[in-house]
Amino acid sequence: MIFSTDIDIRAIAQADLADWDRALKTGSPRGPFSLRGEQDLRYRTCLPGRSLGAFDHGRCVATLRSFTQELTAVGGAAVPANAITDVTVAATHRRRGLLDFMMTKDLTAAKGRGDVVATTFSAEHPVFRRHGFGHAASATEWTIDVARTGLDPLWASPEDGGRIDLMEGNDIRALGLGPTLHERWCRFQPGAVNRDDHWWGVSTAADNRRSTWYGPRFAVYRSADGEAEGIVSYSLDDNLGSARLPSNTVSVDWLIAVSPHAQSALWRHLCSIDGAVKVRSGWRAPDDHLPLLLPDLRAATVTGHRDWLWVRILDIVQALEARTYDAAGTLNLEVVDTSGPTSGRYRLEVAHDGSALCAPTDERPDLTMAVADLATLWLGEETATRLVGVSRIQENRAGAARRADVLLHTAGRPWCPDAF
Is 117 exposed, middle or buried, given 0-12, 13-18 or 19+ CB atoms closer than 10 A? Predict the structure, then answer.
């Protein structure tokens, strides 16, 4: 259905912020996901023209916001991305094409800026898939039963000569530990996105406490030579239990580590906190090492698993050339993009060093797929063989899907720890 000419869709101005924020909170029960209060309002003014609103007789009834982001491709290259968030339509104005118009407007602008991909944390999968977004990374949450782990309760410090330092949020900011480590970590984690100064300011603020009694705490792992190799942010609830004995749960906000020793030491630290009987891992990569770090892997129970990051490729040539590959070879792809600019046939040529060249071609395609499914393959979340098996990809040459998997295979799953 086409929306009424009485509805004005435009970039919001400063005077529209309060009404736009009301529409956001009305259209989405969760309200602003990643930021809060006045900080969130000020943040939206940082990128003029990137916050859109639909106004019916002067009242905002739909919202969409985008911001600049960098996404790590397979191999560690950062590609420019258009991150889309705060997408809502009031219940009174759905099925009128408002979201389609705003999404098309935003993606067209992103393509014009030279963004290689667009990203989102999708709540309405059919809507985003209709606009070419594919499921590109999943996330899993574990709950650890501390008593069952089999870890030494007297463990005090890492066995490799490193150490754990407890720190305050202002120290994390002042010393630059968080941003420095995160940049190192992003270089080997496909699906990771950058964190700007505003993110670090909010996530390390002393008043950034949810329903916990000590707000965020921070632990830093340092190797034997004193170099910081891992950080965890966590909080602790206040639960004495029916017997008035400590039975607290440690909740991890985020944990990044650039070495196996750092990862192991930080999880051991979390499992050794006095009074803690459970540790909630927060959303982690589905193939996270966590269960394997425990003597009894059944101590870590999966308590959540879901799709997480969604990606829309805006420039297929740049996207395929940005990542690296595990084997040499060629692949001809036909991409169907009913809502965007990427439809066509492409030839991917991968050299023995893992680098690639991609260009349009008239050759017969080995595989035919929607641009959304190419996004799913691009970061390594799925295999072409599996997608052929459910008829989401058409195999035009026998064995092409298996050959595509040899080229596109990734040793680890993509993961994005951030929701936006």
Answer: buried
How far is residue 344's CA from residue 317's CA, in Å, rounded to a whole number?
A: 11
Structure tokens at 347: 């030839």
Q: Would you say residue 1 has pLDDT above 50?
A: no
Look at residues 81, 125, 146, 143 and name the one whose alpha carbon lies nearest to residue 322: 81
Rounded to whole angstroms, how far apart are CA atoms 67 and 83? 5
Dump pLDDT digits (tens) for 276-293: 999 999 999 999 999 999
64 vs 146: CA distance, rounded Å:
42
Task: Assign 31 a pLDDT band (cuts: 50, 70, 90).
Answer: very low
Distance CA 193, CA 256 (A): 13
pTM for the model: 0.91
C-beta of residue 134 within 8 angstroms of C-beta of residue 379: no
3-state helix, strand, coil in the chain (%, to 5): 30, 30, 40
Best CA proximity match to 358, nearest among 322, 325, 317, 324: 317
CA-closest candidate to residue 230, choices 262, 200, 183: 262
pLDDT digits (tens, 9 = 90+) for 34-82: 444 444 544 454 567 899 999 999 999 999 999 999 999 999 999 999 9
Q: Tell me which amino acid residue 301 is.
A: T
Q: What b-and-e string marks burial along 360-377, b requiring 16 or more CB atoms within 10 Å of the CB?
A: eeeeebbbbbbbbbbbbb
The length of the chain in residues reads: 420
